[in-house]
Model the fold of this input.
Amino acid sequence: MGPYGVIADIHGNREALTAVLAALDARGVRRLVCLGDVIGYNADPDECAAMLRSRGVLAIAGNHDLIGLGRLDTRRCSNNARYALQRTRRTLQRETRAWLASLPARLVLEDGAVVLVHGGVRDVQQYMVSTALVAHNAALLREDFPGARLCFFGHSHEQKIYEVDGEVTDEIRVQEIPFQEKFAFRRDRAYFVNPGSVDAARKSRHKLAQFAILDPGADAIEFHGVRYDAASSEVKARVFGYRIGPWTDRLYSWQRRLQRVLHT
Ligand SMILES: [Fe+2]
Ligand SMILES: [Fe+2]
Done:
């Protein structure tokens, strides 16, 4: 059946998504999966959703998609993400809303061997950024998806592989595998893999649109990063009101402090 292109965290960045889809087309990858956060932060949420829909991409919902629909609040968002999401909510087209509302929280592929989640296994807003958190989620994965060997996650926007060893919850051992562009899985281990983020607007180290290619037949994964027109994407986001100004930023910070005082 061929390899899967695995993408995540597009965040309304049409230029980055266009570059990733072109790179996947050039490699002949036809099956695409998306780990959520299609919208939020950049200026083209409807266009990105339409691009995924037209290609029949299998997608799950991320926290930004749920916030855009009004199903989650912005309490756990940074000020700039909250501002951009409020802007996104005002403009989202009906077809986009309907499609986002149809997305499941998690998906299973390859007869249960591959699971897709956005944040943690049971918490769409959890950042799996440490071996301890991955170990906790590995135990949840075994409960919820006993046959899973590979769990793809997004949300933290960094390309990562964690290897999981051990059969019983108490004995689960997790190690982060040093980054490598191509990696072959062991049959006697489970893995948590983040393909990186398509959107690089908030990254200072580089402006590369990231993705991964899974070859389930070969038990192998490749990580990629491609250049895109980041300057145009950023100008559009500013012109169309998706970037927070200093006064609103300060206002949001004060509101946050006030809420903390009122709730303690
Ligand atoms: Fe995200
Ligand atoms: Fe997210």
Helices lie at 14-26, 45-54, 63-68, 79-91, 94-101, 131-144, 230-239, 246-262. The CA atoms of residues 161 and 177 lie 5 Å apart.
